[in-house]
Amino acid sequence: MDDRRTAELLAGILDDRSPCPAVEDFLPPADGGFSISPELGRLLARVVQRFERRNILEFGAGRSSLILAHALASAGGGRLTSIEQRPEWCAEAWAGVGQVPGVSARLLIAAPRLRVSPAGVYYAYRDAGPAVAAGGPYDLVLIDAPQWYYGRDGSLHLAWPHLAAGALVILDDAGRRGERWTVIRWQRTYPGLSLIAADLEFGGRGVAVLRQGDLRRRRFSMVSLVSSAYHARRNARARRRHRLKA
User: Fold this and answer.
1) Using CA atoms, how far apart are residues 109 and 123, in angstroms rounded to an integer?
2) What does R_g of the chain's alpha carbons equal in angstroms?
3) Is pTM, for the whole model, over 0.85?
4) What is each CA distance from 236 to 99, 114, 246, in whole angstroms?
5) Neighbour count for residue 40 (Cβ, 10 Å)
6) CA angle, corner 186, sides to 184 and 190, nearest 5?
7) I need a labelling partner for 217 at 20 to 30 A (CA). Which of 19, 118, 123, 186 fits?
8) Which structural domains are found in the chain, ordered by start?
């Protein structure tokens, strides 16, 4: 399926506000705090079902893990690998994930660590790298972490070598300025990555969907390097202010 056809199907999914029977009982309330929005939960389920995704990598476990597991089960089963830095936040939801039939699920506990590379300055779950590599190739990636002030660039950098051709990458909170810059840096670094759909108001937080094409190479981008360093420094200052207030 090419970018054009993928974009057409996604446009219909984004506009669909009807209930999704496979996951409706597991959606968070509209004011679910740090949990994903109900709209994103339905979108995830429909992407799994209509695009026949079977091997999912998730950054930021929780209610989304439960939704993805039930979506996989409704589509015939599959694999789910979730990465989380604070397992106590997802303990209740993950207990339910283990009970979903037909789904092989694995929770990886890892902390984001700073990395400097030609792709930029970013935080990534580097300790999870070997397990992520072993579980690939992935045809769907949900990026809803790292939490707090780390930035989300590093999630895709970790996943990139292990994506299947045509893999979809869904970024939550895409309406935020930091996430918008993340998408810009990703596209400058990976010329094979296409922005297929973006709705900055979706679920009150925004969502972006990108697609990995056949082009696998990574290129150097001065814009990505400089802007990622700027955002990493700004986020570090924000973390320090948060700790002082706490």
Assistant:
1) 15
2) 17
3) yes
4) 39, 11, 15
5) 26
6) 125
7) 123
8) 3-245 (3.40.50.150)
Angle between the N-to-C axes of helices 38-50 and 63-74, in degrees from 0 to 180, rounded to the nearest 10: 30
Contact at 8 Å (CB) between 123 and 238? no
Place of tokens 């299947």: 164
Asked if 56 and 80 touch (Cβ cutoff 8 Å), the reply is yes
DSSP labels for 96-113? HHTTSTTEEEEEEE---E
CA atoms within 13 A on the CB side of 53: 35
pLDDT value for 148:
76
Please, are residues 85 and 151 in contact by the beta-carbon 8 Å criterion? no
Q: Tell how strand 138-143 and strand 163-172 pair up.
A: parallel
For residue 9, give every residue at least 6 positions away whose Cβ sits within 8 Å of its Cβ, in sequence order, or none: 50, 51
Indicate the residue type of 25: D
pLDDT by residue (tens digit) across 10-68?
999 999 989 999 999 999 887 767 789 999 999 999 999 999 999 999 999 999 999 99
CB atoms within 10 A of CB 21: 9
CA dihedral 80, 58, 213, 175 (to 10 degrees): 150
Sequence-separated (6 or more) residues with CB below 8 Å from residue 227: 120, 181, 184, 185
Cβ–Cβ under 8 Å, residues 35 and 222: no
pLDDT of residue 62: 92
- Type of residue found at 3: D
DSSP of 159-220, one letter per residue? HGGGEEEEEEEEEETTTSHHHHHHHHHHHHH-TTEEEEEEETTGGGT-EEEEEE-S------
